[in-house]
Amino acid sequence: MNEVIDLLMKHTSMRKFTEQPVTDEQLRAIVTSAQSASTSSNVQAYSIIRVSDQGMKQQLSVLSANYSYIVECPLFLVWCADLHRLHKAYGKHEDDEPVYIGTTENLIVATVDASLAAQNAAIAAESMGLGIVYIGGIRNHIAEVSKLLKLPQHVYPVFGMCIGYPDQQSGPRPRLPLDAVLHENTYDSDRMTKPVEDYDRTMKEYITLRTGGKRTSTWTEDMANKLKTPARLHMKSYLEEQGFGRD
């Protein structure tokens, strides 16, 4: 093992931060680290919006299920899948050939690019002693978030990220056993049964201890409940309105 792997394996989401600011130098290091992430065909199909206005942070908090840590964190970034810049690049060399901007494939490319860049940023931040938490809740009211951030066509907010110095003590949440996620040559559904059963026992012990017995559910119970609850069914129509998925 080495320091990088050790850092990765210690990751835990942080939702409480001190008032110590994140410096501009740290922000630049975080963003330039993000830019060093892999990107499909060098399109770099993402943009990052730093939200420093407290009023805007308050609005984003309300739109994201009232997460107080959006307001309280010293640095809040919104990671956007961005094909608008690609469209601008095409405009410099426009010809009579058809253009394929908002295809489903390009939607996937932009989403993956944004996610890879954000994870690089998360690792860079944690290497400096900072903590982070991803905020998928900004997609709860994604049209309103997009209007607030003045996002043009072919751009959508994938998630937010709170960054700051942690003001909490918590260890990593147990992950699925390796045998549940690593396959050899072909996908083997049957071999997942025992590792998932083992993980159910692990998570039940973890959540019971963490909540002081207020919750005792297993992972499969949590996932079953999650899948029975409709979530963000507006995403398809929103993405179409933003110019995505029109193949």
TrEMBL record:
Residue ranges of coiled coil: none
InterPro entries reported for this sequence: Flavin_OxRdtase_Frp, Nitroreductase, Nitroreductase-like
Alphabetic keyword roster: Flavoprotein, FMN, NADP, Oxidoreductase
Pfam families according to UniProt: Nitroreductase
Keyword Flavoprotein included in the entry's annotation: yes
Domain of life assignment: Bacteria
Domain Nitroreductase: 9-165
Record carries keyword Cytoplasm: no
Similarity field: Belongs to the flavin oxidoreductase frp family.
Name of the molecule in the record: Oxygen-insensitive NADPH nitroreductase
